[in-house]
Amino acid sequence: MSIAVFASGSGSNFQAMVEYARRQQWSTPISLLICDQPKAKVLQRAERLDIPYHMIDPRRFASKRAYEEKVLTYLEQSRIEWIVLAGYMRLIGSTILNKYEGKIVNIHPSLLPAFPGLHAIEQAFHYPVKVSGVTVHFVDEGMDTGPIIAQEAVTIEDQDTIESLRAKIQQVEHRLYPKVVDQLIQGKIQYRRRRVE
Ligand code: GAR
Questions:
Q1: Residue with CA at minimum distance from ligand 1 atom 7
Q2: Which of 20, 104, 143, 180 could lock onto 83 through a cystine, CB 3.0 to 4.6 A?
Q3: What is the pTM of this model?
Q4: 119 given a catalytic annotation
């Protein structure tokens, strides 16, 4: 059994995770990258790190379900047990969720439930809040709503810019996310559906 990372962008979290897994000699290896953006920099990182990947363009499928069924065939081929979202800018649909509930985690650049969605760093900066941070959570059917596993705060100083805040947040992400996934694959974190009041 192994791990697949899903990513849409630069892939700095993907790289940090692969390097950590190799240093720590994880018994559950990262064996696949799924990417939905043909020009994403993460594809070059996968080449350099020698991780097999599939670039699957959702626009070439008639429906989200058809796209996710294609993704599932690759996950099954590689015997994937865990899905790690790392800057995957797309909601996981029911086709994948039904097969992998409790086995999908995501990292988000804010202290959820504040600032869900695609522009969390910019929104925290412009609000402006004094403290933001990073959240690692299980994925459910909502947008950044699944059960929270770990959070770490990052303070926003007067002299910060969006770019300096992004750098601080990413530094935390690269340290926190591999550690959480390490605990997860060792069975040290249990999935429980979030209670909805
Ligand atoms: C990360 O900061 C991650 O938290 C964020 O995208 C970035 C990807 O960076 N994810 C989201 O905003 C999800 N809503 P990377 O491609 O360099 O890892």
A1: 87
A2: 104
A3: 0.97
A4: no
